[in-house]
Design goal:
The complex is a heterodimer of chains A (538) and B (286). Chain A has 538 residues and is an alpha+beta fold. Chain A has 15 helices and 13 strands. In chain A, helix 11 packs antiparallel against helix 12 and helix 14 (483-493) runs antiparallel to helix 15. Chain B has helices at 2-22, 78-85, 115-121, 136-146, 152-165, 169-172, 185-198, 215-228, 241-247, 265-270, 275-281, and strands at 38-49, 52-63, 67-71, 95-103, 106-107, 122-125, 203-207, 233-237, 250-255, 258-264. The chains are: A alpha+beta (538), B alpha/beta (286). Chain A binds chain B through residues 320, 405, 407-408, 410-418, 421, 425-426, 429-430, 532-538, and chain B through 86, 88, 91, 93, 116-120, 123-124, 126, 128-134, 142-143, 146-147, 178-179, 181-182, 184-185, 188, 192, 195-196, 199. The complex binds adenosine-5'-triphosphate and magnesium ion. Residues 78-79, 207 of chain B line the site of magnesium ion.
């Protein structure tokens, strides 16, 4: 034993063990999230469970655990959790079934899962379809494929409605709003030219007429959504009539083959990353949150890089090294340790109310008292994060600059280059890999922050993306969605926490993936640069 | 008896050291050659790093289109003196200079002097090769680009001419776009020479250019120096006595920040006027 410590082997073992421990923790974390998340999209079979007391349940298996016993620890009894859906009928999506009360479990081939726009999934059997007044009984062969056809049509109509509401009517609204603001601006500036105001009012009228037209189209579309009806019966015999327009997807998991299930799996996955959220974010996709997260990180990088690099350049290359510079350096390092919510508070005080207030007064006075920039928005959130991550960039850049050999600087100066030329053409390129390392660290930190965002511009549901077809196309004042906040909101703020749980894991996995992708991109660029600038040494 | 003699010798050496250190002005009679056509004239140069004086009353003249070598033991101020000629010492905050250095008649320590312009006229090759982390081509073109030349054909011409001048063209003409850091040490040093002569300086300062190289590479660079001195004025610092005697026409011996003896190279090596010089070149101390 003594020899082991003396020879130093013990310490090698210790270092190895701690490394292994850290790796295990990371692997465990990823494994947990990945298994929980990736299973979410799989169309599990639907089981019909009959209990000894005559109760029947139809649903998807969702776990099994020992029943918590009050007294005797030795009694081991288990219970099964079922997702039975039909929230409009039962009130709850999940139920517990004691294993010893189960009489039989079957997998009926014709059990159908319906995804709906409201009330979550419906589990049951198709009773009949009402297509333009024609009744098609559920038992008929083509009933299921017709159901699918109905849903497809309804989805198309819903898509159209969405397009009209969001883009077309959105455009009109935007134009009307702008015209109104122009009139208000004229009034504010004491304009007396009535012709101009009349002209603008006429334009508004025109837009309003267009708006009417669109509304009419919309109402016909809406009525078409309700034309066709689907009648389902639940396993306990209750019938439920639903307009086809309220459905999103129908499938019969028990009669699907492996590849059909796989197809379903990937289509669900695609929906998750590309669609808007539904039902208080617990269903549908997270596309706006992905977009918001990435866009925010990009703005942050664009802001933080020049600032960080210039600050580091000044500290390392231009300032006279001494007490003051050391003090600044210590402050910068400490800034990196300040809790992020503090930066958030600063962002609210300085960016939102301070700068935002000024911008509103100067450029958007006609919209007041409604704030434009004087409220949370993606620009302010990005700037707050930039502030949060600038110390990281400064420290990494400074290290990179310090590592540039002095004789290279001398070489450049000896050729008659000025200090600026030397910094720009020799020093920065040599330090670029280190600078990018700083950016990678900054991105990693920024993507994971939620707290400061919650008070500077993130919302649970943002109606519009920060980029769209309306001039000026990039709307930095808009509020946005963020994956980190989405996790918090779905998992802990939604009315139906149980049903949202898998969504939490999936979103978490997605967030990890995005961090990895952003970092990988930066790492690849860095390695390319490294190869370009620093191949082999002598 | 023998021990006594050795002690005597050590004592006298110590005495001499003490004398030179405590009374540095003692020796005004540093022996100097007559130089007809001086490019650099140093007059009463004193230089200190903070409180520590590194050069004492240096006065010398460097002849045009010849190679002049600075020799002397480590720490005697050879590099310091060399770096005064292109004012690279300005980068060191604590460094203060008094006296005059005239290049082509103009005092380079005058306030009106444009330092970047001076450095374009006085090129430098460093002890450790220091190519920029760029391609071979960009390394050589660097000075020209700084000087505002951006025309591709003109740059091509400069790069080829300079690489030829540094006897490197044949070796690298097919890989001009590769990183300079992928070259061998000797090639890198010749690249640095090419880079320095690309801006067509009048004077080329070389601070131990061969100290990190093997004999073959050293030989190449020595040949190069012999060629270059037809068009450039070369000042070279070296620790290698053979090298000094091979490449230089004039040699200056420095000791503890002072110029001890300055003469034609043959004279320094064959018939030095001072005992210190003789001891040093014959390898008795240093
Ligand atoms: N940047 C500096 N700051 C302070 N002192 C310095 C600095 N550079 C050199 N010195 C001092 O100045 C003296 C002369 O140094 P210098 O580098 O000129 O010697 P050298 O003759 O070139 O020696 P070597 O042959 O070892 O290169 C030395 O005592 C050295 O310690
Ligand atoms: Mg030296």
């Amino acid at each position: 034993m003594k020899g082991l410590f003396k020879s130093g082997d013990a310490y090698i073992w210790m270092t190895g063990l701690s490394l292994m421990f850290s790796l295990l923790m990371i692997a465990g974390l990823l494994f947990l999230i990945a298994t929980k998340a990736l299973g979410f999209f799989w169309p599990a079979d639907v089981v019909e469970i009959k209990l000894t007391n005559g109760q029947v349940y139809l649903g998807q298996y969702a776990g099994n655990e020992a029943i918590p016993q009050m007294g005797d620890k030795n009694i081991k009894e288990y219970r099964t959790r079922l997702k039975i859906g039909n929230r409009d009928l039962y009130g709850l999506d999940f139920t517990w079934v004691d294993d010893d009360k189960i009489k039989s479990a079957e997998f009926p081939k014709n059990a159908i899962v319906l995804e709906r726009r409201e009330w979550g999934n419906f589990y049951g059997f198709l009773k009949e379809l009402n297509i333009n007044g024609n009744i098609i009984p559920g038992e008929s062969k083509e009933a299921f494929s017709q159901l699918r056809g109905l849903i497809n049509n309804a989805n198309k109509i819903n898509g159209k409605i969405h397009h009209i509401e969001k883009s077309e009517i959105g455009d009109i609204n935007y134009k009307i709003e702008n015209l109104r603001l122009k009139i208000r601006g004229l009034e504010l500036s004491g304009n007396t030219d009535q012709a101009k105001v009349r002209d603008l009012n006429n334009k508004i009228k025109k837009e309003e007429a267009k708006y009417k037209e669109k509304e009419e189209t919309l109402s016909t579309l809406y009525s078409r959504l309700n034309e066709n009806k689907v009648v389902m019966s639940s396993v306990d015999g209750t019938d439920k009539t639903m307009p086809a327009g309220t459905l999103v997807r129908a499938f019969e998991p028990n009669s699907m083959g492996f590849f059909a299930k796989l197809g379903h799996y990937f289509s669900k996955m695609w929906e998750f990353v590309s669609a808007n959220p539904r039902e208080a974010n617990t269903e549908g996709g997270v596309f706006p949150a992905i977009f918001g997260t990435v866009f925010m990180v990009i703005i942050m990088s664009i802001v933080v890089m020049p600032f960080g690099i210039l600050a580091a350049l000044y500290l390392r290359e231009y300032s006279k090294q001494g007490f003051f510079v050391r003090l600044v350096r210590i402050c910068v390092n400490n800034l990196a340790g300040v809790p992020s919510i503090v930066f958030g508070v600063f962002g609210v005080g300085f960016f939102l109310y301070g700068m935002g207030g000024i911008i509103d007064n100067v450029f958007y006075s006609e919209a007041l008292p409604t704030p434009t920039f004087g409220t949370g928005g993606i620009l302010w959130a990005s700037l707050t994060l930039a502030l949060l991550t600038v110390p990281v960039v400064i420290v990494a850049t400074e290290e990179g600059l310090a590592a540039v050999p002095k004789n290279i600087k001398d070489g450049s100066l000896a050729l008659g280059a000025t200090k600026f030329e030397t910094v720009w053409t020799v020093i920065i390129p040599s330090a670029l890999p280190a600078i990018l390392t700083g950016l990678i660290l900054a991105i990693a930190r920024a993507t994971g922050e939620v707290a400061p965002l919650m008070i500077t511009g993130v919302v649970k549901l943002a109606p519009d993306l920060p980029i769209d077809g309306n001039f000026p196309f990039v709307h930095l004042e808009r509020k946005f969605m963020h994956l980190g906040f989405h996790i918090y909101d779905v998992g802990f703020q939604s009315p139906n926490v149980e049903a949202a749980k898998p969504m939490v894991y999936t979103t978490a996995l997605l967030l990890i993936l995005i961090v990895v992708v952003l970092n990988l991109t930066a790492i690849i660029i860095r390695n390319k640069l490294k190869k370009k600038y620093v191949s082999s040494a002598v | 008896m023998a021990t006594y003699e050795v002690r005597q010798e050590i004592m006298s050496e110590i005495e001499e050291k003490v004398k030179t250190e405590t009374a540095p002005k003692q020796d005004n009679s540093a022996i100097k050659p007559n130089i007809a056509d001086p490019v650099v004239e140093v007059e009463d140069l004193n230089l200190s790093y903070g409180n520590k004086q590194a050069l004492y009353n240096i006065s010398l003249e460097i002849p045009k289109n010849h190679a002049t070598a600075f020799i002397g033991p480590s720490g005697c101020g050879k590099s310091t003196l060399l770096r005064c000629f292109n004012r690279l010492n300005d980068l060191i905050d604590s460094c203060t200079v008094s006296g005059e250095i005239r290049i082509n008649g103009d005092n380079i320590y005058d306030h009106a002097v444009d330092i970047t312009n001076l450095r374009k006229r006085v090129g430098m090759v460093f002890q450790k090769s220091n190519p920029f982390p760029k391609s071979i081509y960009e390394n050589v073109a660097y000075g020209a680009r700084i000087a505002g030349i951006n025309d591709k054909s003109q740059l091509d011409e400069i790069v080829e001419k300079s690489l030829n001048g540094a006897a490197l063209w044949e070796e690298v003409k097919d890989r001009l776009d590769e990183s300079a850091l992928g070259m061998s040490g000797g090639q890198q040093q010749r690249l640095c020479i090419a880079r320095a002569i690309a801006v067509e300086p009048h004077i080329l300062l070389m601070d131990e250019p061969c100290s990190a190289l093997d004999p073959v590479a050293t030989g190449k660079i020595e040949d190069l120096i012999t060629q270059l001195k037809e068009n450039y004025t070369i000042v070279i610092v070296t620790h290698n006595m053979q090298q000094a005697s091979r490449v230089s026409d004039y040699t200056a011996f420095m000791y503890l920040g002072e110029l001890v003896e300055y003469a034609k190279t043959e004279k320094i090596f064959l018939n030095p006027a001072k005992k210190q010089t003789e001891d040093y070149v014959s390898g008795k101390f240093g």
